[in-house]
Automatic annotation (TrEMBL), chains A, B, C:
Pfam families: PhoU_div. Belongs to the UPF0111 family. InterPro entries: PhoU-like_sf, Put_Phosphate_transp_reg, UPF0111_domain. This is Phosphate transport regulator. Gene3D superfamilies: Phosphate transport system protein phou homolog 2, domain 2 (1.20.58.220).
């Protein structure tokens, strides 16, 4: 179930890249597809909660499973928000740092998809956690220098704040991947 | 205790509506009453923590109770912040989407008050969780189109950002209701 | 281990004060030193996670320990972000309310350092929790009146938003201290 949920994140990060590479006119249609992935994610979360409510046996705390499902959901919510806001605000051109943000999200999605099956054996989760933390630090640096450029380059205030809303959501998605990794680390700590 | 705490949220949402319907001159007095409700909420949270520290027996994890108390507190904090900022920033006129945000908060408060006694029996909590999640999705849509209108209608930047601060807190309150529902869902999952 | 981690927060709050008291030209060097403290904090967090993954016995839930380590990390992240952004945005002059924010962070750091050894005996943690909550309420008031001044005094929008980014991170650090106190309160509740 969690490998499926993480698969939605990977689909989401691929669509994000497609959206920001596309002509503005094509973006609404891609944002709609990303919204469908987010709905699939909501359904996956809800299926996990329903399964927890029935009598099935879990190898981990029900609590941890609920938390992990919620955190995976947060990643996809932030990705979808970034896409949706870029369409709603009719932003034509995004600064180049956005490409770097999306590349990091894509890498974090792949690492998370890879880590999920390892929850069964609790092997090699430490290296996953360290790499996600490194990626989150990189994301912070990209985010801040992107904002510093915007603020120091005399961007027109309204345009700046539209872009900032989108860029903030991408930064939130990177933070949310770290929260996912922290829950997994905490599960591994308890089970070891 | 939790039904009382949820009752504070309902009082808060009623005062929020009163405040945003009132003339600007009357708002400081209503904001003061909302701050009193927030203090009552802080006292309720603290009473729950104190009770946990004494030897009384709880039907649930102490941990979950502490988390639920904290999340209920977050809802009221965000409501009070919205009221307080609207007064501090001397905002005269709020966009019409704010009414829709407050109507959603009121509905979420009523659902939460209704759900609290059902924690004792763990009945019908699934439908509560689904409805709160639907409301949170609606809140997201209202929030984003409200911002898109503000950003695309040539609102003067400083006025836009004052309004955005208030509207952000209302959105945070809607998110916080979802966090409350997630903790309750997680309690129900563990106890079932 | 936690007393060491809290000691990093105290070092961080001292460097923050030094940075905002310094001439703008000296700030990059102080921000670099704060970044080194943050890296020491990351290492401390990781050492705690690694220790949890080995077979050593803990007096508390592994889960609570992981959460506490994460929350302490969040405080230092926010402090470091405030310092880094003030340098990146080349802010020359900060409003006077920033001094009050930093004084509160310093006080919260001292209280947290003092509280850590008391986790062993669970004595006097209630007064720590109450005082941190009071400080967080004060921080909210300082933050909001600082913003109200900026917004109502006709500050130029771009300058306003650079300052707001820094001030937001200082507010986030104060919130993060409250989250630390909530986890400690929850540990005390479970163990009592």
């Amino acid at each position: 179930m969690f490998t499926d949920a993480a698969g939605n994140l990977l689909d989401g990060s691929v669509l994000l890249k497609e959206l920001f590479d596309a002509e503005p006119g094509q973006r609404p249609e891609i944002a709609t597809r990303l919204k469908a992935v987010e709905h699939a994610g909501d359904d996956a979360t809800h299926a996990i909660f329903r399964a927890l409510n029935t009598s099935f046996i879990t190898p981990f705390d029900r609590d941890d499973i609920a938390q992990l499902a919620g955190q995976l959901d947060d990643v996809l919510d932030a990705m979808e928000a970034a896409a949706d806001l870029s369409v709603l605000y009719q932003i034509q051109e995004l600064p180049s740092g956005v490409d770097a943000q999306i590349a990091i999200l894509h890498q974090a999605s792949e690492l998370t998809v890879d880590a999920m099956p390892r929850l069964a054996t609790l092997q090699n989760l430490d290296s996953y956690w360290i790499t996600i933390n490194d990626l989150e630090n990189q994301a912070d640096q990209v985010y801040r220098s992107l904002l510093a450029d915007l603020f120091n380059n005399g961007t027109e205030p309204l345009r700046l704040f539209k872009i900032k809303e989108v860029v903030d959501q991408l930064e939130e998605a990177a933070d949310a991947f770290e929260h996912v990794a922290n829950v997994i680390q905490s599960i591994a700590a308890k089970e070891s």
